[in-house]
Amino acid sequence: MRRALVARAREVGATLVGVLDTVASRAGALDTAATLVSAREAVATLAVATMTVATMTSACSKDRPATAADAGATSAGGAGATRAPDASVAVAAPSGLSAEEGRALVRGACLSCHSEEMLAQQRLTHAQWTKTVTKMVAWGANLEPKDTAPLTDWLAATYGPNAGAYEPAPIGEEAAAAELAPLPDGPFANGDAERGRALYTDRCSGCHGPEARGHIGVLLVDRPFLYRAPDFAETVRRGRGKMPPTAMTDAEMADVLAHLRALR
Ligand code: HEC
Ligand code: HEC
Question: How far is the centre of ligand 1, averaged over its atoms, from the C-alpha of 156 (Å)?
Answer without folding.
Answer: 15
